[in-house]
Design goal:
This protein has 208 residues and is an all-alpha fold. The protein has a single domain, classed as Arp2/3 complex 21 kDa subunit ARPC3 (Orthogonal Bundle). The chain has a two-stranded antiparallel sheet. Helix 1 runs antiparallel to helix 2 and helix 2 runs parallel beside helix 4. The N and C termini lie far apart (39 Å).
């Protein structure tokens, strides 16, 4: 029996980051790239006069990072984004750094949302638009749950007021970001020409 017949089958890529060769280098590189993507998207910013929370591209970056990296790497990337920005790296909104006051809850929410999106992506949620959209919306819910709760405490306002300041003005824009992210990831998978695993072979697949 030849040695080639004893070789273990190659593991299929679970998320897009698995397509990058070299496990250790891949993990470091994708974590750094994910943090940098969110930092870059934070510079797309529009300040609104009636709320301390600006419109940014960050949530789009978080959703894409979460699904592309898987839950462990995305949580690490977003934790890096949070800690490095907190310590002085100017890649928070508008090239700022340090404590973000009323908006800090959203940044904490990024870490949790990235993990949630990554967990769902590892189960196939980023392979089809109809699966990806619920995953993106789940990430949005986590981000705004953290953000609105923090906003209420920081501003000493009730939940209804915090929702009016930190959620309602952003619903339309966040829906657009979720749809764009849900279309992007399956599109990239198709370009890679990596076949999807049959859903019947994955007991934990999305949409089982």
């Amino acid at each position: 029996m030849s040695s080639s017949s004893l070789a273990l089958p190659r593991r299929r890529p679970t998320v897009l980051a698995d397509l990058v060769p070299g496990a250790a280098v891949r993990d470091v590189a994708t974590v750094l790239a994910g943090a940098a993507l969110v930092g870059a998207s934070a510079q797309v910013v529009v300040h609104l006069g009636f709320t301390p929370v600006p419109v940014t591209g960050q949530t789009f970056g978080v959703l894409v990072t979460g699904c592309a990296l898987g839950w462990r790497r995305s949580a690490a990337a977003l934790a890096l984004y949070l800690v490095a920005g907190w310590l002085g790296l100017p890649w928070f909104v508008g090239h700022t750094a340090g404590w973000q006051g009323p908006s800090m809850g959203y940044v904490f929410g990024f870490v949790a949302a990235g993990a949630v999106c990554g967990y769902l992506a590892e189960r196939g949620a980023d392979r089809r638009v109809l699966w990806a959209l619920p995953a993106m919306l789940a990430g949005e819910v986590v981000i705004f749950a953290f953000g609105v709760a923090w906003l209420a405490v920081d501003l000493h306002v009730g939940l209804a007021r915090a929702i009016a300041l930190g959620l309602t003005p952003f619903l339309a824009g966040e829906a657009v970001k979720a749809v764009l992210a849900a279309g992007l990831l399956p599109g990239v998978w198709r370009l890679t020409r990596v076949p999807d695993e049959p859903r019947a072979s994955r007991g934990d697949a999305v949409g089982r």
